[in-house]
Amino acid sequence: MSAHGPDVGDSHAVYSISVASELSGVDPQMLRIYEQRGLLSPFRTEGGTRRYSSDDIDRIATITTLLGQGLNLAGIGHVLQLREETRQLADELDDLRTSSAPDRREVRRLRRENRDLRAELARDDGPGAAPPGPADGPASGGRR
Question: 44 has which bridge partners?
Answer without folding.
Answer: 50
